[in-house]
């Protein structure tokens, strides 16, 4: 045969497929060799390479063979453009979803690494500057329900998932100043989820500023002890609470099997009281 023809084995090797695939495609009428000799030898033309590449690409994209055969049998410039535009849209959406999944994994890694860095100093309180963040808030929590207001909790999670807002950050809890000084140790006003955009319903900005930060290695049952410790620190170190307290899980059941091994971070927005007079 001439140089622009290939045997079944040569064509299969060139296209990185098994010869059985070519035999099957021939059997179902999807992709036939250009020449079949009287002795049964089959030969594919170099001009068929691009057609096979499209078939193989569509197969990799999960298009059923029946649909591919229909596309190949009835192809014309208009139908090819329409079909490829449709598949391009599907691919772009899949890429978007994959990038979101990648972002979720990256954020999980970042959160866990942050927890591991502070593990040796977990009992220490500190004051730090924090950048602004965007949070989507839940509806107001019924403070009489413990440990969760299940209805508000579920509705918030559903909203985040349905709006593609979830990017790997765990559910957080907000205490107002009134909550912090409430007799109810488990009083919270909102659930929140950290997001990466500033536009949308129920999205607020966590202010950039100075925060008193504390950590707990334990379960939520133990969290009132951390809040008491932090409020005592505020009182004895010339600090004033000027905003919400933000509570977030750094280590949770994603990374550990026992809730008593959680690492929880609390950040209270504060300012330092200056007693100097002029």
Mind explaining what this structure looks like?
The radius of gyration is 30 Å and the shape is elongated. The chain starts with a strand and ends in a 6-residue tail after the last strand. It has helices at residues 8-15, 19-27, 49-60, 65-73, 77-118, 150-162, 177-180, 223-236, and strands at 5-7, 35-36, 42-45, 126-130, 133-137, 172-175, 190-195, 203-206, 209-217, 239-251, 263-272. By secondary structure, the protein is an alpha+beta fold. The longest helix is centred in the middle third of the chain and has 42 residues, at 77-118. Strands 4-9-11-10-6-7-5-8 form an eight-stranded antiparallel beta sheet.
SSE layout and pairings?
Layout lengths: L4 E3 H8 L3 H9 L7 E2 L5 E4 L3 H12 L4 H9 L3 H42 L7 E5 L2 E5 L12 H13 L9 E4 L1 H4 L9 E6 L7 E4 L2 E9 L5 H14 L2 E13 L11 E10 L6
Keywords:
278 residues; alpha+beta; 3-stranded antiparallel beta sheet; 11 strands
What does this entry show, briefly?
The protein is built from eight helices and eleven strands. The protein has helices at 8-15, 19-27, 49-60, 65-73, 77-118, 150-162, 177-180, 223-236, and strands at 5-7, 35-36, 42-45, 126-130, 133-137, 172-175, 190-195, 203-206, 209-217, 239-251, 263-272. The chain has an eight-stranded antiparallel beta sheet.
């Amino acid at each position: 045969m001439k140089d622009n023809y290939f045997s079944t084995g040569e064509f299969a090797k060139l296209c990185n497929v098994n010869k059985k695939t070519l035999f099957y495609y021939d059997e179902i009428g999807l992709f036939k060799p250009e020449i079949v000799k009287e002795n049964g030898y089959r030969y594919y033309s170099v001009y068929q390479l691009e057609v096979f590449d499209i078939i193989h690409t569509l197969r990799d994209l999960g298009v059923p063979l029946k649909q591919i055969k229909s596309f190949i049998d009835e192809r014309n410039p208009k139908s090819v453009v329409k079909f490829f535009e449709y598949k391009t849209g599907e691919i772009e959406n899949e890429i978007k979803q994959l990038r979101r999944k990648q972002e979720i994994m990256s954020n999980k890694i970042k959160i866990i690494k942050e927890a591991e860095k502070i593990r040796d100093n977990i009992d220490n309180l500190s004051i730090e500057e924090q950048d602004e963040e965007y949070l989507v808030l839940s509806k107001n929590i019924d403070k009489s329900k413990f440990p969760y207001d299940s209805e508000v909790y579920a509705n918030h999670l559903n909203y985040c998932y349905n709006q593609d807002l979830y990017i790997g950050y765990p559910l957080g809890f907000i205490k107002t100043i009134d909550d912090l000084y409430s007799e109810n140790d488990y009083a919270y006003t909102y659930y929140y989820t950290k997001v990466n955009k500033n536009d949308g319903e129920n999205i607020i900005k966590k202010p950039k500023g100075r925060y008193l930060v504390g950590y707990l290695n334990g379960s939520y049952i133990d969290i009132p002890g951390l809040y008491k410790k932090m409020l005592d620190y505020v009182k004895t170190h010339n600090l004033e609470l000027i905003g919400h307290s933000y509570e977030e899980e750094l280590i949770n059941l994603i990374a550990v099997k026992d809730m008593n091994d959680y690492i929880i971070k609390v950040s209270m927005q504060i300012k330092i009281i200056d007693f100097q007079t002029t």
